[in-house]
Design goal:
Length: 171
């Protein structure tokens, strides 16, 4: 896939992150390609339409990088072969993983090629970080249900008994 000369970086409006590999390249699984990448879901707003128009000025036919979704949003999947800059809302570098649902602003470079138009990922600014879910969202304690026995560790006691007995720790 021969690419022609790229254009300048374009700042995208606020988007919701989907699948993201911005701290480490994607190297595991069926779609792993060794690149840094992020799925960006944009609401159909005037800011998005202006951004889309600026990117599409480089479109020469073929693949359109903006994919309409059933919920009315648009999906863009910028990638890069080198690590993008990742910063927080105050422009401080971060090493936190970006998870699905995080709110981000990215800069991308349109890159036309013989088969269409792609976008290279340059920078990710995390406005609202969503951490990894522990899978318990929406669950609550059910009184009277099964309760697993918790193991006791040598020299330590359960927290309810902590005031009654403390372990001897030699220093």
């Amino acid at each position: 896939m021969k690419q022609t000369k790229s254009r300048g970086s374009i700042k995208a409006p606020l988007a919701t992150a989907g699948y993201a590999h911005v701290q480490e390249p994607d190297t595991v699984g069926d779609v792993a390609d060794g690149k840094w990448k992020i799925e960006l879901f944009f609401d159909d707003t005037p800011e998005f339409q202006a951004f889309r128009g600026e990117v599409m000025q480089h479109y020469q036919g073929g693949w359109d990088p903006f994919r309409p979704q059933e919920d009315g949003t648009f999906l863009l999947r910028p990638k890069t072969i080198k690590k993008p800059t990742v910063v927080d809302a105050k422009l401080q570098p971060i090493t936190d993983d970006v998870w699905k649902g995080s709110k981000v602003i990215c800069s991308v470079t349109p890159a036309p090629y013989e088969g269409g138009l792609t976008t290279w990922l340059n920078t990710v600014q995390v406005i609202e970080l969503v951490g990894r879910s522990d899978g318990l969202a929406g669950f609550e304690v059910v009184e009277g249900g099964y309760e697993a026995e918790q193991p006791e560790f040598a020299g330590w006691v359960k927290s309810e008994q902590a005031e009654q007995k403390t372990p001897d720790i030699p220093f």
